[in-house]
């Protein structure tokens, strides 16, 4: 018996414990007789649901009721079948405990990300347009729109490649993930674009240092060139006091020794003794000053990200 047949039989046997997750489907033939229909099942949800989380979202174990057969998971990794955006990736998943791990660089590069390796802290930064994420070896902290997320499993190095949990593709990269009963893993990225403004149906959320700041969705809007965000609300969330200078007409932000001044229509922002060039001039709308999203990082010295669902993440890097 050849390897392909043996593997197929093993997959079928291993899947017997998972078959109850999806019932058989039948259809009528021309004679009116019910006949079985081949159905492609997606076991990814069952794979994710096997993990038990605590109140902080940390994975603390697995549940027997939804846990997939361990032998089947092992065979999935041995099948070496991983497709990203329609292209077969020359690197498969590996099994580590109950976790299926996927190779970080091949997957993200196929999705259009540019990756930079930092040898000092053994981390990877990945950028795709306005999207940004970072991954650090042996650290269960992943970033989604600059917001740290725990997946219950830290990145690991295997055969000189960094691997991350399969949940990284769906939970951090916001891709669609499927895992069929043959053991094929498919990752499909969603269209990446600057979201349309809230009047077009987008629900905006601004998150600063991991906390939503309660800015109404309509307080964010887009121009032809950028996404405009409320400067005062963001400044206050970052701990600045905000005042309008009646003499200069500028909006001033002060936090300790830090000082920033922004002015409607200005091409630069005063940041301490430096002038920072703005990609789009600030706008006043309904009595509020709006700053271009693309200049937030330079003006407030923060990391920023925006995802296709409208989550705007702003994160300071605190020194330890």
UniProtKB/TrEMBL annotation:
It comes from the Bacteria. The keyword Signal applies. Residues 1-22 form the signal peptide. Coiled coil: none annotated. Residues 84-182, 208-307 form the Copper amine oxidase-like N-terminal domain. Keywords: Signal. InterPro entries: Cu_amine_oxidase-like_N, Mao_N_sf. This is Protease inhibitor BBRPI. The lineage of its organism: Bacteria, Bacillati, Bacillota, Bacilli, Bacillales.
């Amino acid at each position: 018996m050849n390897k392909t047949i043996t593997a197929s039989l093993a997959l079928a046997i291993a899947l017997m414990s998972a078959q109850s997750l999806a019932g058989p489907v039948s259809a009528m033939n021309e004679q009116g007789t019910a006949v079985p229909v081949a159905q492609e099942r997606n076991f990814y949800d069952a794979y994710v649901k096997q993990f038990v989380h605590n109140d902080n979202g940390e994975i603390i174990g697995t549940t027997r009721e939804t846990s997939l057969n361990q032998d089947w998971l092992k065979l999935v990794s041995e099948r070496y079948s991983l497709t990203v955006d329609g292209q077969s990736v020359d690197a498969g998943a590996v099994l580590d405990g109950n976790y299926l791990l996927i190779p970080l660089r091949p997957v993200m590069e196929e999705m259009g990300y540019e990756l930079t390796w930092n040898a000092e802290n053994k981390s990877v930064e990945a950028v795709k347009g306005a999207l940004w994420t970072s991954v650090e070896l042996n650290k269960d902290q992943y970033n989604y729109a600059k917001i740290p997320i725990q997946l219950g499993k830290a990145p690991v190095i295997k055969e000189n490649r960094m691997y991350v949990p399969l949940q990284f593709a769906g939970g951090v990269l916001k891709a669609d993930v499927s895992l069929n009963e043959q053991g094929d893993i498919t990752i499909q990225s969603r269209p990446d674009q600057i979201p349309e403004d809230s009047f077009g149906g987008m629900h905006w959320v601004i998150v600063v240092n991991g906390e939503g700041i309660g800015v109404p969705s309509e307080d964010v809007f887009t121009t032809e060139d950028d996404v405009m965000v409320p400067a005062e609300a963001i400044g206050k969330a970052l701990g600045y006091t905000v005042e309008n200078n009646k003499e200069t007409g500028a909006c001033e932000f002060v936090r300790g020794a830090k000082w920033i001044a922004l002015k409607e229509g200005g091409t630069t922002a005063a940041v301490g003794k430096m002038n920072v060039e703005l990609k789009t001039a600030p706008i006043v709308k309904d009595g509020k000053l709006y700053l271009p999203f693309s200049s937030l990082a330079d003006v407030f010295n923060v990391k920023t990200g925006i995802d296709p669902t409208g989550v705007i993440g702003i994160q300071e890097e605190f020194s330890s």
